[in-house]
Design brief:
Shape: globular
Largest sheet: 8 strands, mixed
Strand content: 15-25%
CATH class of the largest domain: Alpha Beta
Strand order of the largest sheet: 4-16-5-15-14-3-9-6
Number of strands: 16
Length: about 450
């Protein structure tokens, strides 16, 4: 611990074309004491497509979490850090007025709570809850919000129109008519977080890579100056943090080399790993650094676009995900859907483990997060919108959310009630959001 000195929270390591924010360090505590000694709360949403095999998702009990269902099983080591929520519904995802289709409606209404417009001429949903929060607190961080994804329908070739793509490709909506497209390319995300913000073409990147140095090489001087004034614990935290960035760089380099070997003319973002799990980990590793360094406190993550027909050959499932969900109760097809659902949760659990491993103040990075994991459809075969598969990971700071439980709400409870409650926790208060009828009871038992 530094004596007589303190670091400002917004301390950066700087180099040519590079700015690296720091994680929370003990040395910052004196500087923060006049205002707050608590780490900020982060809010995020991880959306999985095409519903769920609810037979293997739902729990047949309430109260303290015991044995988890097959799909949630990868979260078993972290069940004390999650809430499983039942009977939350998106009424505006139903076909009250059609136009974008069921998949477009469920995704377009997920964070807006609004019915997407029917017209085929333009698009209209509503401002999403993440953007309401970003508009209020975004001035405290470099990025008001981050929007990430793993697949674009136009590149996958299974989007019938730009109109439906607007809904199935986007979770965040800045206004009723302006979606915020997710970043899909890991290299683009890396350069946005740590670079000078100048977008490079694949050709320019290829030329640059011949002379590429680690971004950490450019901040070596600042790093050495900083370490002189840090105690042993902070030095270890800083070393782990910078090692994470170095690891991300290596993953990016590997992905770019692998893609070049597979087919350099593939119509996908430059640097995107061919392997789903690798792509997921790379994006969440960078998101973790962004949260740790307080670059943002709000994020959305579209785990492949809604209605995707992606195949999972790594699971020996060559069939498209979306067609499989229209299984007509055929056991062999339902089994494949369950395996895909479990595979998604496995990747999420790996990220939760990482968040839980990072110390922040008196707790962990996960302790200071609220992360919703779920889908906008319940059963992909029935296309229903009630009792949506939903869990909430993290404690929302200061043990605000009492996790380790299964809560079943009254049927047809609006999902917007959950989002309104989360907005409150982010210190953004409103009387109403989407189709909300009030706050969601039971998140905090105090």
């Amino acid at each position: 611990m530094i004596t007589g000195k303190s670091l400002a929270r917004r301390t950066f390591l700087r180099g040519i074309g590079t700015t690296i924010a720091l994680p929370f360090l003990d040395a910052m505590t004196p500087a923060m004491a006049a205002t707050t000694t608590k780490a900020p709360v982060r809010m995020g949403f991880v959306y999985v497509p095409n519903g769920m095999d609810v037979r293997n998702w739902n729990l047949d009990y309430e109260g303290k979490l015991g044995e988890l269902s097959r799909i949630m099983k990868p979260l078993e080591p972290f069940k004390e850090d999650v809430l499983v929520l039942g009977n939350l519904t998106h009424n505006n995802g139903r076909a009250l007025l059609d136009g974008p289709g069921d998949h477009g409606r469920c995704c377009g209404s997920y964070l807006t709570g609004m019915q997407p417009r029917k017209t085929m001429v333009d698009i209209k949903a509503g401002i999403s809850c993440d953007q309401i929060v970003a508009n209020q607190i975004g001035n405290k961080t470099r990025f008001p919000s981050l929007e990430l994804g793993l697949e674009d329908a136009r590149q996958a070739g299974d989007c019938d129109s730009g109109y439906s793509c607007a809904y199935t490709n986007n979770l965040a909506w800045r206004s009723e008519t302006q979606p915020l497209p997710p970043v899909l390319d890991p290299r683009a995300l890396f350069e946005r977080l740590f670079g000078n913000g100048i977008a490079l073409s694949p050709e320019a990147r290829a030329r640059q890579s011949k002379y590429r140095r680690s971004i950490l090489d450019f901040v070596t001087s600042d790093t050495k100056k900083l370490e002189i004034n840090l105690g042993p614990t902070d030095k270890r935290k800083l070393e782990e943090y910078l090692s994470s960035i170095r690891s991300i760089e290596r993953q990016l380099e590997k992905a770019e080399k692998d893609n070049a070997q597979i087919d350099p003319k593939m119509p996908k973002p430059y640097g995107v790993p061919a392997d789903f799990a690798e792509h997921f980990k790379l994006m969440t590793d960078m998101l973790t650094v962004a949260l740790q360094a307080d670059l943002t406190r709000v994020f959305t993550f579209l785990v492949t676009r809604e209605g995707t027909s992606r195949a999972y050959r790594e699971l020996e499932i060559p069939d498209g995900h979306h067609p499989l969900t229209h299984h007509q109760n055929k056991p062999e097809l339902m089994e494949k859907v369950s395996r895909i659902n479990t595979y998604h949760v496995k990747q999420f659990a790996g990220w939760i483990e990482k968040l839980k491993s990072i110390q922040e103040g008196d707790g962990t990075l996960l302790d200071n997060c609220m992360i919703v994991y779920g889908a906008g459809l319940t059963d992909g075969n029935k296309h229903n919108h009630e009792d949506l598969p939903t869990l909430l990971a993290g404690h929302g700071g200061n043990n605000y959310i009492k996790t380790g439980r299964r809560i079943n709400y009254r049927k047809e409870t609006p999902m917007s009630n959950l989002f309104l409650s989360m907005m409150d926790r982010m210190d953004v208060h409103g009387e109403h959001f989407g189709d909300s009828t009030g706050r969601l009871d039971g998140l905090n038992l105090s």
